[in-house]
Amino acid sequence: MEITKAVIAVAGSGTRLLPATKAQPKEMLPIINKPIVQYLVEELVEAGIKDIIMVTRWDKKALEDHFDRSFELEQSLEKTGKVEILKEVQKLSEMANFIYVRQKGPYGNGTPLLSASTLIGDEPFIYAFGDDLVKSKVSFTKQLVDLYKLEKSPMIGVQEVSEDVVDKYGIVKYRGDGIELEDIVEKPAKEEAPSRHADFGRMILNREIVDILARTACGKGNELWIIDAIRNYIQEGGRFLAKEVEDGKWITTGDPENYLRAILTYAVDYPELKKVMVEYCDR
Fold first, then answer.
1. Is residue 13 domain-resident?
2. pTM score of the predicted model
3. Is 183 a domain residue?
4. Residue 176 pLDDT more than 90?
5. pLDDT at residue 121, rounded to an integer
6. Mean pLDDT on 97-107
7. Is position 40 within any domain?
8. In CATH, what number is assigned to the domain containing residue 230?
9. Mean of the per-residue pLDDT values for the chain?
10. Structural domains of the chain, count
11. What is the pLDDT of residue 128?
């Protein structure tokens, strides 16, 4: 079955980036000349995703406006002869079929999925966190989809991290030497970590996992965690895989340090900005 739907969780508060996120969604913070969420949407579209369901909340209207038409702006750009910028603005609303759902339920990264569950149907789909990016030569979502076509199993994205930071992430435990998971260990001590592969917010899920999530109790911090549902799926006999990023890297943007790293990572693609960075670092 073709994977054409994606659910993006964009209902978070962005408290670690306050006060910048007081009046705008964290996913709309710019990285060079595009907001964070646009990089994610472009990755999804490159992988053949047609329908993008964004799970939002009351103060996220800027997300909807960004992927909508702006006739006044378009007319102004046309009148001033800014044709290339006009094309960039117009293509935003045409990238995919955008659907917006308000989040309901307990706090946690599994709740957005339940809020969108009636729109998913029985087909496999992408689930992504709006502040996780992957900069790679080939869309990481496409890498996931290509592996799914071969294996027909749900999966999560992973990236190798240094031994010193395994206690900050969910670390996957493999079954044997393959790509199938036996478990996901949340924030293990480095001497107890089953691998150095950390999971992140990009995955292919199926209806069975959604149904398991619906009967999964809130876990750590009284939050509903998608990882708990995935672990239950594995324990009930489901086959679940890990897909490592190829020719690229996962970039999180949810705190000031990593947000700055993300800006610098993308800035090197612009020769004029790379020059500025080199000049600054040489001071």
1. yes
2. 0.93
3. no
4. no
5. 87
6. 92
7. yes
8. 3.90.550.10
9. 93
10. 1
11. 97
Residue pLDDT, tens place only, 204-242: 999 999 999 999 998 888 889 999 999 999 999 999 999
The answer to whether residues 38 and 130 touch, using CB atoms and an 8 Å cutoff, is no
Task: Let me know if residue 272 belongs to a domain.
Answer: yes
What's the pLDDT band for 105 if we cut at 50, 70, 90? confident
Angstrom distance (rounded) from CA 205 to CA 106: 20
Angle at 192 between CA 186 and CA 194, to 5 degrees: 70
Domain that holds residue 57: 5-154+200-281
Distance CA 183, CA 25 (A): 33
